[in-house]
Specification:
Citrate Synthase, domain 1; 3 strands; globular; binds acetyl coenzyme *A
Length: 384
């Protein structure tokens, strides 16, 4: 069939490209439903492992099923020597953590067929990538800082292990709950760019590790998962509430985008921003810097007001990244870890979408509209 070139929608905005039972984003109402639950409920009540099970199996696990999943993740959490060698090499070159995570994720294919799209192989790959993401990120951060990686503790859950492997200390309950809230909140979010990338790759019957590597590449960009670091930088740059308007006006005047604001689907406040703002408030009230939280609130208020003034009618509101930055900073994570930590949560959704695509999906192969020339005359080299 020829490319028909009709109905081109820039950025595929509003185009429905998959059916999913995993999550639903209502951009007008500002609602996010994940496997039938409002995101607020999962954020508050579930462990990360429960959300993972829900996404993979469309049911809440009973005690035995949850214990089995925790054990399966625990077994796969330690890094093979080849992965550690690669991370050491990347650290010696000072590679950014997202690049190190991408490279190290590729090593999950070592010792497997790496090409099989069958369900058992895909499930094994999914367990390995989900289990190893926190280990890779934490080990790499320590190597970058000139420290030795800390091995995972089999007694700790997924979120607690991540903080433990980063800091070498068993984290407090408040910190674990805050991280778990974050991971659950970002675990899945409709057909976002990285999830779409994963589905496209697996739709070719390629392997799940390749799909996750592709998704990491999409997540890294500043218009997707790369925004929280810059969002926090702006809060620090502002420093004091009374400077917010002047600094933000200057940025908007230069035509810059304010990181942490605006969304392709949400035209009202991103519901995840509320969940994370509440979690950040709790965290900062218990052991953090309440002044920073107050400053962030003021920056948010000012940014939303200025965006309405500079870009009227665009519905630019706070997105998930703004309070992600604040929450992860409150947990002691450096800005370079924000996007990899997003990946630690979102890999749950990526893998679930891969299963769904493998079960029901067709090869994803859209069309393009040709806008180039026709009937050009070939010019020999000597005449060009
Ligand atoms: N600051 C200033 N202006 C903005 C912003 C922003 N944050 N976001 C959009 N705009 C403006 C655009 O300049 C454009 O203006 P114009 O109509 O005068 O040309 C208008 O609003 C529409 O913008 P688009 O780029 O067409 O909207 P799109 O749906 O493609 O963008 C996006 C969504 C990429 C998230 C955008 O809002 C943005 O760049 N935000 C900042 C980066 C960010 O926070 N990313 C994280 C998103 S959440 C996530 O992926 C997890």
């Amino acid at each position: 069939m020829s490319e028909r070139g009709s109905g081109f929608v820039p950025g595929l905005e509003g185009v429905v490209a998959a059916e999913t039972r995993l999550s639903h984003v209502d951009g007008e109402a500002g609602e996010l439903v994940v496997t039938g639950f409002p995101v607020e409920e999962l954020a508050r009540r579930a462990t990360f492992e429960e959300v993972l099970y829900l996404l993979w199996h469309d049911a809440l696990p009973n005690a035995g099923e949850l214990a089995d999943l925790r054990e399966a993740l625990s077994q796969r959490r330690p890094l093979p020597g080849a992965t550690l060698d690669l991370l050491r090499a990347a650290a010696s070159e000072g590679a950014p953590p997202m690049d190190a995570l991408r490279m190290a994720t590729g090593t999950v294919s070592l010792g497997t067929q790496g090409t099989s799209p069958d369900t058992d192989a895909a499930y094994e790959d999914a367990l390995a990538v989900v289990a190893r993401f926190p280990t890779i990120v934490a080990a790499y951060k320590r190597l970058l800082d000139g420290e030795e990686p800390v091995a995972p503790d089999p007694r700790l859950g997924h979120a607690a292990n991540y903080l433990y492997m980063l800091n070498g200390e068993v984290p407090g309950e408040g910190s674990v709950r805050a991280l778990e809230t974050y991971l659950n909140t970002v675990a899945d979010h409709g057909l976002n760019a990285s999830t779409f990338a994963a589905r496209v790759i697996v739709s070719t019957r390629s392997d799940l590790v390749s799909a996750v590597v592709g998704a990491l590449g999409a997540l890294k960009g500043p218009l997707h998962g790369g925004a929280p670091g810059p969002a926090l930088d702006v809060v620090f740059e502002i420093g004091e509430a009374h400077r917010a308007e002047a600094v933000l006006c200057e940025k908007l005047g230069r035509g810059e985008r304010l990181m942490g604001f605006g969304h392709r689907v949400y035209k009202v406040r991103d519901p995840r921003a509320d969940v994370l703002a509440t979690a950040a408030e709790l965290l900062y009230a218990s052991d953090g810097d309440e002044a920073l939280y107050e400053l962030a609130l003021e920056v948010e208020r000012t940014a939303v007001a200025l965006l309405a003034e500079y870009k009227p009618g665009r519905g630019l509101q706070t997105n998930v990244e703004f309070y992600t930055a604040l929450l992860l900073h409150g947990l002691g994570l450096s800005t370079e870890l924000f996007t990899p930590t997003f990946a630690v949560g979102r890999v749950a959704g990526w893998t679930a979408h891969c299963f769904e695509q493998l079960e029901r999906g067709r090869l994803i192969r859209p069309q393009s509209e040709y806008v180039g020339e026709r009937d050009r005359e070939w010019v020999p080299m000597g005449d060009r």
